[in-house]
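With this grant's support, the team has encoded backbone shapes as discrete tokens. A representative record is reproduced below.
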Amino acid sequence: MQWGIATQRGNKWLPQSFHSVLERKNQRDSKVEESRNHQNPIKMSKMSLK
């Protein structure tokens, strides 16, 4: 099956490409979600100006 679709770089778009694009999107989404839910510990210290 040939779709005749070219990417921005001129490569051919294949059905396998769709799977890898979705996989990378899921990885990015999970990384963003993980960083949004991350709670940094509260650390209080003396502040000084010199």
